[in-house]
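Hi there. Long-time user, first ticket. I'm pasting a complex I've been working with (about 886 residues overall). I'd like to know whether the download I got is complete or cut off, because the file seemed smaller than I expected. Thanks.
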Amino acid sequence: MSVCLESPVPMKKISAPKGMRDFYPDQYRVRLGLFRAWEESALNHGFEFYEAPVVETLELLQRKAGEEISKQIYILEEKGSQHLALRPELTPSLARMIIARQGELSFPLKWASIAQCFRYERMQKGRKREHYQLNLDIVGESSSLAEVEVLGAAVLAMQSLGLNHNDFYIRIGSRTLLSALFKSVGIPNAHFMACYLALDKREKISDDEILELLAREGISKDDSGRIFDLLSIRSLNEVRSRLGGVSRAGSALDEIDSFFESAEELGLSDYLSFDPGVIRGLGYYTGIVFEAFDRDNRSRAIFGGGRYDNLLSSLGGKTMPCVGLGFGDVVITDMLEELNRDPVMGKTLEYAVGFMDVQCRPLASKVASRIRQSGLGCDLGLSGEKPRKFFSRANRLHAAHAVYIGPSELKSGRLGVKNMADGEIRAVRFDDSTDFKSLVSAG
Amino acid sequence: MSVCLESPVPMKKISAPKGMRDFYPDQYRVRLGLFRAWEESALNHGFEFYEAPVVETLELLQRKAGEEISKQIYILEEKGSQHLALRPELTPSLARMIIARQGELSFPLKWASIAQCFRYERMQKGRKREHYQLNLDIVGESSSLAEVEVLGAAVLAMQSLGLNHNDFYIRIGSRTLLSALFKSVGIPNAHFMACYLALDKREKISDDEILELLAREGISKDDSGRIFDLLSIRSLNEVRSRLGGVSRAGSALDEIDSFFESAEELGLSDYLSFDPGVIRGLGYYTGIVFEAFDRDNRSRAIFGGGRYDNLLSSLGGKTMPCVGLGFGDVVITDMLEELNRDPVMGKTLEYAVGFMDVQCRPLASKVASRIRQSGLGCDLGLSGEKPRKFFSRANRLHAAHAVYIGPSELKSGRLGVKNMADGEIRAVRFDDSTDFKSLVSAG
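Hi, the file is complete. Here it is re-exported in full:
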């Protein structure tokens, strides 16, 4: 592709890339509220943050991606010897970084990242061509407390956004337990993969269509009936009674029992619901899997994840137990909007300072400097303006307090500090002892 | 390009993209310190944050980029109707976003963003193929207080990183003033562009080579001498005396005079140094330009920018005065490292909690929950471990305090809270009134 350098002449406006978002300041504030909730919750649970380039080698990305994702990867035109692409997910980069230092790092490690990912998809509700995702991963730990800890951090993030167990719940399943259940009712091993594939579509297509899919794979009507019957199980006691003497489900049952115990100890029980039918895609997860949903089932999964113990070895590293959780920004932002709940906004501006003309500028600059030096945010007008224009700007900037310098302030050395919420104006003498910080906390 | 889905078999490790950085947790903490300094300083000065996609249409990026940058753009293979690429800089996206809402937005606006940008370049010190850049822009203001305000925010960021006027300085020039100076000594208008081009290389090549470049452009030896003589000017008074009666420099002189006045009022004078030879590339800046350098001239410019009044109109918008500043993460991080000054690190972990075995887990979980609920960060061990292993992990995680639960703690209900800095252990009764927050502030 040749590069054309035209001289800059006025011409048609250039549009944004389709399916990708601009964040104007008002949208950015919402995003920042979400990111801060994610960040604080991960730090609160002892995760350390890391980041990898949004560009990776195509080889790495394809090695991990399923066929559907592979088709959606944005590939870069070749430059140099490496064939590069935009990441559709962060996990391959995580695996690459860990494998590169697998001998030096101390395990288990708990890593978190907020990563932008790109997929070329048909646009629809809850799907864009880029999104940000909080990734929480615990690498090197086989105890199911690992699953509980990633969930604990995600639940805290939801709570910080004002959502609790009345708003969402988490479906908990287990790949190994589901296999044991299939086995217990006589489904042949050879049919397991086809069953997973069909059941994974449960949120998208009707039960009749799933039955059809199963029939097409050569699964008998009786077996399909047994499978659907298993999916109605909602407690581990029922699993235990169904499995009866099938001892080979022992470790899968122990694992999920211990998961629910730890979750209870950490106060998460109200959020959890056992559901053997949680699948979450294929060929990646190896143990407990989970998905969080709106109680009103308004949308796609809010977050999800599970145990994936084979990833590192599949990419050339040593085998290590891993647990991961992905929490995207699009579904949760839509959900908060529908519920009319704003995420906590970013920090607001404490002061706006304006002035009438160039004679008033030095005093305005002095006031702004003093406010800024005390650690408070302050916008300073850039040229002389009428009071009306200034106060309307202060309002638009969401400033908590506004100070206008005109000739009378210049003459008297007294300032009027206007509280923008209630309109009250406090007269303050401006000298070296003026404490703008206490004015804010008093206001 | 065809997508090959191999079955995951153990194979060679996959390398990272060349010239792009992984941020392991220790590196991420440094980066976070820098980003927080940027963010806080921009907010302190009343900037609002925004963000645009890292992917833009190639058309937009090329329209703004000079020839050198255009060759370095990473282009995406076509998907759909838009031809996309990775941004080499944020300014085209800023212009696109403003033009799209030029009728609705209130001006002047002060926008900030921390944006990752990509350029395919030969790697060398201070240059990678991606970097993050703080962008500060003021759009819609012709007063030179705009230049001062972007500089004020950048200087505050440097101060937050522990650097002051003994460590760096900012060279201030003016395109229009330089033209007036050229004119005053009789350089023909037709030679101005060649002069800018040659002088812009001053940091990279010797004065002899520049003289050669000027000669090749048909500039006489006498004229070259006059040009170099102008570049030695270091004060506005000298400019005034040189220009004497040349009235057409009036507005350029007024502008830069007013710039230095405002800078004085806002306490920036110690950082500024007038230097008519600052060029900063071609065909983009239209007025005052500036560049910050290490006092020891160790590296490339730390940050730079200036007034660019033609960008919006060149991209299809209405003409509007603009001032911008770019502050990359690579040069400043190298500089801090060479000076042995760490940027303020991200938040540290307040507590690590570990336990000996599964009997001790419930109490450990309870303690961790209580700490987390009080808003403090806490890492909880994921399985039973010996004290020695636990405390070494707590140390590696930079935890401020560590609590280990063994059988004796379980029996007594008393915890030992170890201060990891001085090794002191405080015995604390654990019940509903235990205040982990006050333990931290007391420690």
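A couple of notes from our side: Chain A touches chain B through 114 residues (CB under 8 Å). The domain at 349-442 of chain A is CATH 3.40.50.800 (Rossmann fold).
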